[in-house]
Write a structure and sequence with these properties.
The protein is built from 14 helices and seven strands. The chain has two domains: 153 residues, no CATH class; 127 residues, Beta-lactamase, CATH 3.40.710. A hairpin with a 4-residue loop joins strand 5 and strand 6. It is mainly alpha-helical. The strands form three sheets. The protein has a three-stranded antiparallel β-sheet. The protein has a two-stranded antiparallel ribbon with strand order 1-2. A two-stranded antiparallel ribbon has the order 5-6. Helix 1 crosses helix 13. The N terminus and C terminus are likely disordered.
Length: 316
């Protein structure tokens, strides 16, 4: 397994290298027709479903970015969506946390293989003290039952109080042995970064990612999302049509997991960065490390003990 991981790492780095080499790159003559056809398809689908609005970014390393906007920001009195309209990225926010963490590790500011308890002292004296490493947070392999305490994110409880309760939850497996998607546990990477660098996650995201990539509409947090009217509201579906809903602050409590806002213009840049087109910001080494396999994902990993833990989390 050790050699397999090394081989996968090398193959990934090689693929990224060739994807970024431009000496033989030629634009696809069918690109323009293809993306416009897809844009018309998206228009048709939105109209058939009555969806108020959307934005689409399609990127190819050898072709011009295609950014297509549709509809309005709100079903009720919304303004027309443009390429700078901000959307909540929800769990796509995790891609920023992953890239930033590996970037900091490459610069020697963070150790992904170090115990979380070395950075967050509240973990000392718990079942996680020695075995839970930083990379387990980012790879959803902490050993917790999936989506632990997501119900509390949606409550009025603040983030520190949720983390305090999380420390008392028994894992369903040892860290690294099973996969369980997380939001609260994942967001601890923000605390780790703060303790390791004495600079907040939000500061690093702005200075190391958004600014050098010129992602001018991107931000972290609720206040940044609503600072002007050019943002899309969430919507709920009734039997006949969509209704705009209030933008809530709850998942902004877990910023690394779900707190990034960005426009279609920003996301085209982010896609190119993930394809190796901005090596000064995200090097090929960083991209290879962040995509290295860490945990084998199984369809069923909860078991009877995990079911009992899950019920405890729901009723706690």
């Amino acid at each position: 397994m050790k050699y397999l991981n090394s081989l996968l790492y090398c193959l990934c780095a090689l693929c990224l290298l060739f994807s970024s080499v431009g000496f033989a790159a030629k634009a696809d003559p069918d690109w323009d027709a293809f993306v416009k056809k897809y844009g018309r398809y998206a228009d048709k689908k939105l109209k058939s479903k009555g969806i108020p609005g959307a934005a689409l970014s399609i990127v190819s390393k050898n072709n011009v970015d295609y950014i297509h906007t549709m509809g309005v920001t709100s079903a009720r009195n919304g303004q027309k969506i443009n390429k700078h309209t901000r959307f909540r990225l929800a769990s796509v926010s995790k891609t920023f946390a992953g890239s930033l963490s590996v970037k900091l590790a490459n610069d020697g500011l963070l150790d992904l293989d170090r115990a979380v308890s070395d950075y967050i002292t509240d973990f000392k004296g718990t079942v996680y003290q020695d075995d839970l490493k930083v990379f387990h947070l980012l790879s959803h392999s902490s050993g917790l039952v999936p989506n632990a305490y997501d119900n509390l994110i949606e409550s009025r409880m603040d983030y520190p109080s949720i983390v305090e309760k999380l420390l008392g939850v028994e894992p369903i497996c040892k860290p690294g042995k099973c996969y369980g998607y997380q939001n609260v546990m994942f967001s601890l990477i923000g605390d780790v970064i703060l303790q390791s660098t004495y600079k907040s996650y939000e500061q690093w995201l702005q200075e190391a990612i958004f600014e050098p990539l010129k992602m001018s509409d991107a931000s972290l947090g609720f206040e940044a999302m609503v600072h002007n009217k050019n943002y899309a509201l969430p919507h709920v579906r009734s039997k006949k049509r969509w209704y705009s809903a209030k933008l809530k602050k709850n998942y902004y409590k877990v910023g690394p997991a779900a707190g990034v806002n960005a426009s279609a213009s920003d996301m085209a840049i982010w896609l190119r960065a993930q394809l190796g087109q901005y090596p000064d910001v995200l090097s090929l080494d960083i991209l290879a490390k962040q995509t290295r396999p860490y945990t084998h994902t199984k369809k069923k990993c909860i078991g009877e003990y995990g079911k009992n833990t899950l019920m405890k989390l729901i009723t706690d």
